[in-house]
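User: Structure with guanosine-5'-monophosphate, tokens only please.
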Amino acid sequence: MTRGLLIVISGASGTGKGTVCKKLLNDLPEVSYSVSATTRTPRPGEVDGKEYYFLKVDEFKAWIAEEKFLEYAEVYGNFYGTPLNKIEERLNRGKDILLEIDVQGALNVKKKCPEGIYIFLLPPSLEELKNRIEGRGTESPESLARRLKNAVAEIKIGLQYDYVVVNDTIENAAARIKSILSAERCKVSRNLDKFNLGTGN
Ligand code: 5GP
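Assistant:
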């Protein structure tokens, strides 16, 4: 059986990665989302177990001690982590998994899982990025300034990913990512089982 794809998507805050990932999950029923754990406060409308598992700091630390994370990182003063359970089992069953995580976490996963597909989303420009974060209206002025400063630093880390996708429109970005996934599915290294054509050689 062909192993599923481990798809890792990152991008600076306000790049629109959440919306692009939602569209991908909607369009690609074979891809399932890895729900992260976090210690940050839920935003209005966020549901425990859907967007995130919302944990208290001591609960999160207990998960770290119990080695329940594939990776975890501190982002903007809160902890975020990818729960390990089910990932390996799903990939072995040929199921694709999408991780939407920050750059520190993605680079840690890349060390452990080099066969994953690492996609970095870019905003069309920094000006556009600022407008998008402000428009969201969920950040305090301090948080906005911090996220913008971090965005510039994070974008440089994008050089270590496999693919870069500019999020000019959700449709375009999602279409480019679907093309990347189609090509990755055709890689010889992912399809060695198909070369056994029953010739006995
Ligand atoms: P937000 O608070 O806006 O939902 O997410 C803040 C940042 O944390 C985003 O860059 C998001 O990709 C990242 N993030 C979400 N889940 C995880 C995770 O499980 N691990 C890591 N390392 N980062 C995460």
